[in-house]
Amino acid sequence: VQLQESEPGLLKPSQTLSLTCTVSGGSITTNYQYWSWIRQSPGKGLEWMGAIAQDGTTYYSPSLNNRTSISRDTSKNEYTLQLSSVTPEDTAIYYCARVPKYYGADYWGKGTLVTVAS
Predict the structure, then answer these.
(1) DSSP structural state of residue 103
(2) What value does the mean pLDDT of the chain take?
(3) pLDDT of 75-90, one tens digit each?
(4) Are 50 and 57 in contact, with CB atoms under 8 Å apart?
(5) Which DSSP string corresponds to 45-83?
(6) Residue 118 and residue 114: Cα distance in Å, rounded?
(7) Is the distance from CB of 69 to CB of 51 less than 8 angstroms?
(8) 26, 33, 73, 101 - which has most CB atoms within 10 Å?
(9) What totals of helices (H) and strands (E) does the chain contain, helices first?
């Protein structure tokens, strides 16, 4: 299974971040898989942001204050993260990852650096 994040690059504060993860070698509709977004800010640990399950159910971290939305396009086998009202604190490397139920993430994208600056 391979995951590849899109590369949005530089954003300005208050903009909406949109990231797409394209999955190959496996289907995002396979049972018992949670297709997740995880980020790592400079000098900090990994932060789970949210996930979309095989049936389309979404889960979000409450720490992001309802700024997160995850959707999917099953015809393209990809899923998308939207993070609204970004600030410089959202600067991080963003990863998409597959998380099987009851287990930790087993497949990761390479990560994409998102910088928020005015």
Answers:
(1) S
(2) 95
(3) 999 999 999 999 999 9
(4) no
(5) -EEEEEEEETTS-EEE-GGGTT-EEEEEETTTTEEEEEE
(6) 13
(7) no
(8) 33
(9) 0, 11
According to DSSP, the residues that pair with 20 across neighbouring strands are 80
Query: Tokens at residue 65, please?
Result: 């204050």
Q: Of 32, 63, 21, whose CA–CA distance to 46 is shortest?
A: 63
- Residue 83's Cβ-count burial label (10 Å; 0-12, 13-18, 19+) is buried
CA 31 to chain centre: 19
pLDDT one-digit tens code per residue, 83-113: 999 999 999 999 999 999 888 899 999 999 9
Beta bridge partners of 38: 48, 95
Rounded to whole angstroms, the Cα distance separating 105 from 9 reads 25
Give the other-Cβ count within 10 Å of 33's Cβ: 22
Beta bridge mates, 75: none
Q: Can you tell me the distance from the alpha carbon of 34 to that of 113, in angstroms, rounded to the nearest whole number? A: 22
